[in-house]
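Hey,

Quick one before I head out. I ran the complex with Myxovirescin A overnight. Inputs first:
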Amino acid sequence: MKKYINAIVIILGVILIDQLSKLFIQRSMELGDSIKVIEDLFYITSHRNSGAAWGMLEGQMIFFYIMTVIVLGLLVYLFMYEAHSRLMQYGIALIIGGAIGNFIDRVLYQHVIDFIDVYIGTYDFPIFNVADSALTIGVILLFIHMMKDFISDKKEQKMK
Ligand SMILES: CCC[C@@H]1OC(=O)[C@@H](C)C[C@H](C)CCCCC(=O)CCC[C@@H](CC)/C=C\C=C(/COC)CC[C@@H](O)[C@@H](O)C[C@H](O)CNC1=O
């Protein structure tokens, strides 16, 4: 039962922070406005994206609705029947929160509000948001969990 409470707190927390940050950007910045936070590294730039990462599948809202519902269904199943480690539970909760955060934008505005603008060297990484960050961190946690599983399986095989 505790794992559900932790997950619900994480999911609601991600959605709240994501939606509040997007609301702030909508209310206090014009589209295209950019505020320097750290010179040549980190800017807050008001941006909209009607696609997925890197603007893929621009405007394909029906695809995004279907994809997100499938992703969410899969993740809930995984969480209920396969998530035994906290790492996996937290990873899945972060991805669910991020997916819902962007889903709310897509349903309300048919685009996603982005504002985190970072430069890696001279490369201007695609502008993203809190939901994307939660999604990406969740994906990384799941990946670490899978690697740990893989390594421990290898060790067990060696001991046999
Ligand atoms: C992060 C997933 C993207 C997010 O997927 C979602 O919503 C999910 C729930 C539903 C999609 C309909 C389906 C996922 C497609 C897979 C995908 O896209 C593979 C991506 C890999 C990823 C590693 C996991 C890299 C990183 C991306 C970026 C940096 O993220 C920190 C760039 C973000 C900017 O392009 C920004 O404009 C994007 C905009 O905010 C809309 N966001 C989405 O579509």
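The pocket of Myxovirescin A is lined by residues 49, 52-54, 64, 67-68, 71, 99, 102, 112, 114, 126-129, 132-133, 135-136, 139 (CB under 6 Å).

Talk tomorrow,
K.
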